[in-house]
Design brief:
This protein has 196 residues and is mostly beta strands. It contains no helices and 17 strands. Strand 8 and strand 9 form a beta hairpin. It is elongated, with a radius of gyration of 28 Å.
Length: 196
């Protein structure tokens, strides 16, 4: 007797009643997945999180459930929702399985399985340092160093004339405190910090 129109669908899709208790019915549009996409390789910094990024094809498919498993959860752990956390430096493989589909006869579709190779690198947490120079003096970069702290708690001292360091600006024309922009590239990560 009463009904509600919740949308308009222009293509031919099956509509199923999945609840019928004799007094009321609940209907839904059924759109089957055909595949899913995911990036095959990913790099993460230690301590960071990232979604696995699996997407059904077509994107508006109404069926299918993803499951996620890490072969090395001590390196990369993954939640049931596909959120990955970089736990330790190393490499892990995340296996993603899509199930729950039906063919035209109502039979279960074969699972679709794909993997992501995740490499965890030791990310830069902070760069710090202090430089004291005389007004208008020429700066000898080898006399100064910065401290680079990594996500795993380790740290290294690096001279400013190191080939991995680019000092963008040191102004010695004015007495007082200023900042110098430091660009540091350790081969795994590029970071820019301001050093007093």
């Amino acid at each position: 007797r009463y009904g509600t129109v919740t949308g308009v669908q222009t293509c031919a899709l099956p509509i199923f009643c999945y609840e019928d208790n004799g007094t009321s019915s609940l209907w839904m549009i059924y759109k089957e997945y055909t595949d899913f996409t995911v990036t095959a390789e990913k790099t993460m910094s230690l301590g960071t999180a990232s979604p696995a990024g699996a997407v059904k094809v077509p994107a508006d498919a109404t069926t299918g459930t993803f499951a996620y498993v890490s072969d090395h959860p001590e390196i990369v752990s993954v939640t049931k929702d596909g959120n990955m956390l970089a736990e330790k430096v190393g490499t892990a493989t995340i296996t993603i399985t899509l199930t729950g589909g039906k063919d035209a006869d109502g039979n279960d579709l074969a699972p679709i399985v794909k993997t992501i190779k995740v490499t965890v690198k030791n990310g830069i947490k902070s760069i710090s340092g202090k430089i004291t120079v005389q007004k208008d003096a020429q700066v000898n970069l080898g006399d100064y160093e910065i401290t680079v702290k990594y996500s795993d708690g380790s740290e290294v001292k690096v001279k400013l004339d190191d080939e991995r360091v680019v000092v963008e600006d040191i102004d010695t024309s004015t007495v007082g405190t200023t900042t110098a922009n430091i660009l540091f590239n350790d081969g795994t990560e590029l970071d820019r910090k301001s050093v007093v």
